[in-house]
Amino acid sequence: MTNNSIFCIFPYNHKGQWVFDDPDVGLLREPFVSGADVIIDRMVESLENPEKGFTLLFSSNPFPGFQLELEWVEKELGGNWYDSEALGMGGWLCPALLKYFTEAPNRIYAQFKNKS
User: Fold this and answer.
1) Helix (H, G, I), strand (E, B) or coil at 85
2) What are φ and ψ of residue 105, in 5° steps?
3) Which of 9, 25, 78, 83 supports an S-S bond with 95, CB 3.0-4.6 Å?
């Protein structure tokens, strides 16, 4: 786990699935599944070629420019379910979430940007 308060990853599409690599925490092609992938689909609609990669900033605290707020619902199978009231949908974040936080945060704030 790192000490940052805002984290940055670069998801991309691999064989039809949203994944990301983060060698700093030992992750390679870590997939977004069970609704988290559908949330990403919605959030990157206006980005340029997101399948080739985009910037995803996230934090347990609001930050200037955040576009999505996820609220913790419950723990299941080592991961955690989160809902987006604004989108009317939810998704499961796998145990890799704990590579960034000591425990699942009550809220996650995110920003989706073109990769520069």
Assistant:
1) coil
2) -70, 155
3) 78
Residues 6 or more apart whose CB falls under 8 angstroms from that of 30 comprise 19, 20, 21, 22, 94, 96
Does 54 fall in a domain? yes
- Unique residue bearing structure tokens 């145990």: 95
Contact indicator for 52, 114 with CB cutoff of 8 Å: no
C-alpha distances (whole Å) from 114 to each of 8, 38, 47 are 13, 18, 6
Structure-block tokens of residue 62: 């609001």
pLDDT digits (tens, 9 = 90+) for 15-66: 999 999 999 999 999 999 999 999 999 999 999 999 999 999 999 999 999 9
Token pair 């379910």 in the structure block, residue: 81
Model confidence pLDDT, tens digit, residues 81-111: 999 999 999 999 999 999 999 999 999 999 9
Number of domains in the chain: 1
Domain that holds residue 35: 6-114
Evaluate whether residue 34 is within a structural domain: yes
Q: Is residue 1 part of a domain?
A: no
Q: Which amino acid is at 114?
A: N
